[in-house]
Q: What sequence folds into this?
């Protein structure tokens, strides 16, 4: 059992309620490590040209050590009802937040990498209680947000773990909670999982909504593209080649990097901010899109649970790699309708419709990669719009 959980009694469904309770000694150790950081020299160049700037990270580290209040954010996370249960031999942690609206549709949310259930802390309220957020109470959801195995408080998976196995676990979880008709949603890693649940449980899933990922061309599509479409492909390749290739890094030697990320909180913070900088493409720095303390809560969760290494399994198991060695986008399915928060070009729509029944393809929705964090109200509104016609 995870040492950070304080159990508050058994449940009749084979699940155990708990609250997060990080030992004070762990908080003291974190602060001590932060204050004793051995800082590197600043390399030549400007801004983020060679990585996270030293002055930027120093200031953020100072806030993490002396301004950020983990206990306040721990208490906020504990405001969400949480459970642990064993599925397929693995202990799984989840947020289970029922709506005050009795006819709400159950919705399974799957977070991304390098994220956690912290991704949904601003989204859950608008989804479960739209009446309190200026929305239609008829469009409410009961939210189930599990921690993916290897992330946060869920047990790390064994070698050979797959998206399909995870999807079967999520279908079992929803059935165990008494939900036999529900929607699935996710971004980043969650965009791979959401359609996979529909593939394994098409009689239960009413629709699949993802933040983005359907319809991106791959190397296998190039031969059949028009001249204009090939130019679009080349532009996408230039965009995708920027930043640190975490797919290559984590499928090569995640154990090697995990030593630094597990021993040095500033090393972990630098890695996380590098990735969130790349993911928040609409602003110069991540905290201009996502609240700084929410970012630090996510980093803190990785630090306290020691899951920077165990969360690497999707990349190490090559689940995002196509047969030709290129990048593999989420696999579609036609058993239930699908929708996307960030619709794309006509080329992307055409390719998305090869393997999906697309019924929702909006244009102009705001936000960056993790829209549940930087645009939670717009994200909630789009999820409601997609599921409105499927209830």
A:
């Amino acid at each position: 059992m995870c040492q950070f959980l304080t159990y508050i009694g058994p449940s009749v469904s084979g699940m155990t309620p708990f609250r997060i309770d990080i030992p004070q000694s762990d908080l003291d150790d974190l602060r001590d490590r932060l204050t004793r950081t051995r800082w590197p020299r600043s390399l030549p160049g400007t801004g983020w040209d060679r990585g996270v700037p030293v002055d930027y990270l120093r200031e953020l580290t100072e806030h993490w050590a002396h301004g950020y209040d983990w206990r306040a954010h721990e208490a906020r996370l504990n405001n969400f009802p949480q459970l642990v249960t064993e599925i397929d031999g693995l202990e799984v942690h989840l947020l289970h937040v029922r709506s005050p609206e009795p006819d709400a549709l159950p919705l399974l949310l799957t977070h991304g990498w390098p994220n956690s259930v912290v991704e949904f802390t601003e989204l859950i309220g608008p989804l479960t209680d739209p009446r309190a957020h200026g929305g239609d109470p008829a469009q409410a959801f009961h939210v189930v947000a599990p921690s993916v195995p290897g992330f946060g408080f869920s047990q790390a998976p064994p070698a050979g773990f797959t998206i399909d196995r995870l999807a079967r676990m999520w279908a079992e979880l929803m059935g165990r909670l008494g939900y036999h008709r529900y929607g699935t949603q996710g971004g980043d890693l969650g965009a791979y999982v959401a359609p996979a649940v529909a593939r394994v449980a098409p009689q239960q899933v009413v629709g699949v909504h993802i933040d983005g990922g359907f319809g991106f061309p791959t190397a296998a599509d190039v031969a059949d593209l028009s001249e204009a479409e090939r130019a679009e492909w080349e532009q996408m390749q230039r965009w995708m080649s920027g930043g640190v290739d975490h797919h290559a890094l984590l499928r090569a030697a995640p154990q090697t990097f995990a030593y630094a990320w597990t021993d040095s909180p500033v090393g972990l913070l630098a890695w996380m901010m590098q990735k969130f900088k790349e993911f928040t493409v609409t602003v110069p720095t991540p905290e201009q899109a996502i609240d700084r303390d929410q970012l630090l809560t996510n980093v803190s969760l990785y630090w306290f649970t020691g899951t920077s290494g165990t969360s690497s399994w999707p990349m190490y198991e090559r689940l995002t790699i196509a047969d030709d060695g290129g990048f593999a986008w989420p696999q579609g399915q036609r058993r239930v309708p699908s929708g996307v928060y960030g619709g794309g070009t006509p080329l992307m729509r055409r390719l998305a419709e090869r393997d999906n029944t697309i019924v929702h393809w909006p244009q102009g929705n705001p936000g960056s990669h993790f829209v549940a964090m930087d645009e939670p109200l717009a994200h909630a509104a789009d999820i409601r719009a997609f599921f409105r016609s499927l209830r």
